[in-house]
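Q&A log
Question type: sequence-to-structure
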Amino acid sequence: MDIKKAEIDLTNNKKIYVVKDGQLIVHDLPDYGETLIVTLGGKVDRLETTVKRKV
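Response status: OK
Response body:
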């Protein structure tokens, strides 16, 4: 069994980390908005981000 390791910064609240097929995907979160994680068959399919602007 091939074990992969990744080191992530737990102090950064502006990123989300997703593991898909053994790969670490880093996604930057918007200043204002929402990020939806969509799954298909119990696995992550895509990330949908809606960016909003605060006035």
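Response note: The chain has a mean pLDDT of 91.
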